[in-house]
Amino acid sequence: MTQAGVVSATAPVPCQRLKKVTFHYRDFAGKAHSNGQVVVMDAVAPYVGNIFDALFKQGFPIHKAVPIEVYGGDDTRSMTANNTSAFNYRPVAGTGSLSLHAYGAAIDLNPLQNPFVTFGSNGNAKFSPVQGVHYANRAQYRFGKPNSRGMAEAVIDTFARHGFQYWGGFWNSPIDYQHFQLTKDMALTMSKMTPAQATLFFQRYVAWYDSCSKMYPTAYKQYKFNDYTEYLKHQLSVKSLHLAYSANPQRVMDAIRLQPVRSAICVKR
């Protein structure tokens, strides 16, 4: 990955904190493959494996999935190839801020069917990859046309239940239909933690969503949820979890080790 320019010594998550997840998937012709691969942060790797196992069982199609170093870290080339990918040490497109992909905390799914859409000052939309314009209509069932397949809307819940609760299709501008992620605060916190600490944190994060979604099923179907980091910040009376961890790791870990008291804080008001 270093030789391909996908990671360097300045990356917030070093190679030893990254894991390659290999999984089965079905392509758009229904053929099964056993060589799908994405690279993610160590603590989330088992849950990413669960996501792709679930997609395989659902028959959700994936065009291909190879690590981004195959494309030399070039996100445009990867998207054009309709490649599902995860880790890539790069900034957010058009900015100098690091992407969640640089933390191994984001996954891009079928970029052709789920394009990245930006809007110019004149209101014109630009699709990346360009061929993604054919998927501007996000309806799965359309009169007189074949059903749309491989679109991210169908698997939002699958990703959320395994920790990737934030979807770029909810954004106003840009809209990133392919993109599922953790929050930046969470990724920053986990990158500072030991692997064992990050693993426990993510376990609690996933369990929180599972419990709260059962307690408040209607609110969660409408995406009106507070995630586990909001609970922790409430308990610790802080605005930033990663800054709180940097200041006092033990205090944050003590809060994580406590069994959470689930209440109305599950739901965003």
TrEMBL record:
InterPro entries: Peptidase_M15C, Zn_M74/Hedgehog-like. Residues 94-182 form the Peptidase M15C domain. Pfam families: Peptidase_M15_4 (PF13539). This is Peptidase M15C domain-containing protein. It comes from Photobacterium iliopiscarium. The lineage of its organism: Bacteria, Pseudomonadati, Pseudomonadota, Gammaproteobacteria, Vibrionales.
